[in-house]
Amino acid sequence: MSKSNFSRRGVLKTGMVASAGLALPQYLRADGHTGFTNAPGDSEVILGFNVPQTGPYADEGADELRAYELAVEHLNGGGDGGMMSTFSSQALDGTGILGREVKYVTGDTQTKSDAARASARSMIEKDGAVMITGGSSSGVAVAVQALCQEAGIIFMAGLTHSNDTTGKDKRANGFRHFFNSYMSGAALAPVLEAAYGNNRKAYHLTADYNWGYTTQEAVQSSTEAMGWETVNTVLTPLTQTDFSSYIAPVLNSGADVLVLNHYGGNMVNSLTNAVQFGLREAQANGQNFEIVVPLYSRLMAKGAGANVKGIFGSTNWHWSLQDAGSQAFVRSFGTKYGFPPSQAAHTCYVQTLLYADAVTRAGSFNPCAVGEALEDFEFDGLGNGPTLYRGEDHQCFKDVLVVKGKENPENEFDLLEIVEVTPAAQVTYPADHPQFAGGALGTCNPGA
Amino acid sequence: MDQFILQILNGLDKGSAYALIALGLTLIFGTLGVVNFAHGALFMLGAFVAVTVSNLLTLSHKVVDNTRTDFLGNPLQVDVPYLYDLFGQTTGDAIIDWAVPISIVIAIPIMVSIGFIMERGLIKHFYKRPHADQILVTFGLAIVIQEIVKYFYGANPIPTPAPEAFVGSFDFGVILGFDPNAIIYPYWRLVYFFFSIIIIGAVFAFLQFTTFGMVVRAGMADRETVGILGIDIDKRFTIMFGIAAAVAGLAGVMYAPINSPNYHMGMDFLVLSFVVVVVGGMGSLPGAVAAGFLLGILESFASMSQVIDILPGINQIIIYLVAIIILLTRPRGLMGRKGVMEE
């Protein structure tokens, strides 16, 4: 007579063990035989696009998402190929990445660090994303970058301009193509000196958060180095909508230049208020009063309307660039969507191609192999001229554009004109520069 | 001294917006007993009436200009407003330039209608519910409204300039004998201040000197007795809701040139306006107006760099700090009535 091994307790135990096994995150299942997080199967690879789909930067996020979709289309062999034909590497052939069809999932950062981490975590753990990219805020970028480091995922940052992203908060698994505050200051200073002279007194209004601090520090040190004096620096709350009480005292402060270290809605409102208070027409210290906006975005410039006319700033990229890569991207994006891409769209598209290219050259999705392929990688044809992805801090070094609000725009997109393409050498700094001090890149984490 | 006057002037226009929104909030609370968290959304909708009118006035047809190219290198399609075809370019431009003042006329019936719909369609079902339920439902409504606006207009601010005649600023300081540039004040903000004074005056006059207003005031004081006298007070209160919506909407229309409208602007003002109502005294119309201007001016003073240097961060908490002090010393607010929200 055989004795049955089935018992109520045994069934429960077995069931619980089986359930626990099934409930384990997908990346743990992948780890066992590949050695890194979320190793893709043979047929497809999933990328995670984490952009602001709600909140104040939703329009910028929507443009980023359009660029990502376009990049996926091109990687999979669709469309006209965009920048893949101008990219110096030529490793990508339109058959996906390493022969796998590229699929994607999206998350909503809401421009909040907690929400961004939650959506990135979900894409990694539930959807099996092998790479996370996106964002329109430095706070979000730093938070998601740290998460990706812990999870063993590559993070290709979107629009993030704070020095800290590749400074004190840099991570081995994180890479930034976008320029930074230091580069804005270094590019702007000579142009400002040529336009306004070196005998100027600057008044800074600065958004009271990480990006504002690094941008003020960068612009202040660059302009002071050429002889400008800083008469006052005032922090403004990030939630401020009416800047009149901050703008009103400026004209009577002894300053003759107002630097608005603001972005997004803050920039639109503070610039609008400054123009309303007559700063553009005013005279101070025997000179015309001037306004400077260190970081420009075409989408934001549109919000400020005619107020941007004649005002200097810097930008990572602009659709009017005439190089083959930019033209290919603008043609591709403009034909698909009916309007030119923003700088946010450009950097996100480029980051996706750079990731795919690095995987292809490395012959592996392993984040450490990908990171190695990206480090000190030199490339061209992606819209910013010859570019270096520096291994020491994972920051791209390339030309920076100094732009000015256009006096006589010919159409609704024609808001900024490029006044100077600042060579990469002029905005390059040592990795241990004081503005980037603290923190360490650490070692790559494959996640296994 | 010049800085003192400058910050008072700055506070006046900010206070005007607070006062107008708080006035509407108090009207609704005083009549219907509803704490309306969707009131900021009405302010935002007013601003978007100005945006919409501006868009309608610039409705255009395309004309191909073969001498110029677009960003893709194709012949440029130039937008020509239909107003040019109807009235010629000079008159068309003048009409477009005055989009915001034109919006005031259009906003009144639109905002009153929105107020009616909001009150009859949703809020009336919550009259007998606890204030917490009213807050939740109106806050939810505010989110729905702002998401609808974002869907149609996007998340970025939309520039809506004042008429050319009111662009720029004047040197107020020179008139008062100060140095040039000491007190600069934009024309449109001055217009906004006087506009708000007119609206506030009109609301008070309406309540004080008309039979309708007298009945409403009586209803605010003792709703049941007025009802026993055979007066349909609910109908009048619904009309007051429409008027309150129009006041908030007009405040939004006129605010559009000061800061480019965006879907979130209502929320930016809502919390501060509630603080204004509480500081002024729940249910007190003069209190709401007085507190609006008071807190607007104090907020301006707290933003001065000399003040921030001594008290860092004071600019972010001043309104709440003053609210705490006032409520500790006068628990019913500046002009609050006994018995309001005390049961």
Please tell me about this protein's structure.
The complex is a heterodimer of chains A (448) and B (343). Chain A has 14 helices and 17 strands. Chain A is of the alpha/beta class and 448 residues long. Chain A has two domains: 44-179 and 319-398, Response regulator (Rossmann fold, 3-Layer(aba) Sandwich), CATH 3.40.50; 182-315, 3-Layer(aba) Sandwich (Rossmann fold), CATH 3.40.50.2300. In chain A, the strands form four sheets. Chain A has a seven-stranded mixed sheet with strand order 7-6-8-11-12-16-17, sandwiched between helices. A five-stranded parallel sheet of chain A has the order 2-1-3-4-5, sandwiched between helices. Chain B has a single domain, classed as Orthogonal Bundle (ABC transporter involved in vitamin B12 uptake, BtuC). In chain B, 68% of the residues lie in helices and 7% in strands. The model of chain B has no long low-confidence stretch (mean pLDDT 89). In chain B, a hairpin with a 5-residue loop joins strand 1 (60-69) and strand 2. The radius of gyration of chain B is 22 Å and the shape is globular. In chain B, helix 2 runs parallel beside helix 6 (131-153), helix 12 (265-280) packs across helix 13 and helix 13 runs antiparallel to helix 15 (314-329).
Q: How are the SSEs placed, and which strands pair?
A:
The complex is a heterodimer of chains A (448) and B (343).
Chain A: H1 8-23, H2 26-34, E1 44-51, H3 58-75, E2 101-108, H4 113-125, E3 131-134, H5 138-151, E4 154-157, E5 174-176, H6 181-196, E6 201-207, H7 210-225, E7 229-236, H8 244-247, E8 257-261, H9 265-276, E9 283-284, E10 287-288, E11 290-295, H10 298-304, E12 312-315, H11 324-337, H12 343-362, H13 367-374, E13 377-379, E14 387-389, E15 396-397, E16 400-405, E17 416-422, H14 424-427
Parallel strand pairs in A: 1-2, 1-3, 3-4, 4-5, 6-7, 6-8, 8-11, 11-12
Antiparallel strand pairs in A: 9-10, 12-16, 13-14, 14-15, 16-17
Helix pairs in contact in A: 3-12, 4-5, 6-7, 9-10, 12-13
Chain B: H1 2-32, H2 39-57, E1 60-69, E2 75-81, H3 82-87, H4 89-97, H5 99-121, H6 131-153, E3 169-171, H7 172-175, E4 184-186, H8 187-209, H9 211-221, H10 223-228, H11 233-255, H12 265-280, H13 285-302, H14 305-310, H15 314-329
Antiparallel strand pairs in B: 1-2, 3-4
Helix pairs in contact in B: 1-8, 1-11, 1-12, 1-13, 2-5, 2-6, 2-11, 2-12, 5-11, 8-9, 8-11, 9-11, 12-13, 12-15, 13-15
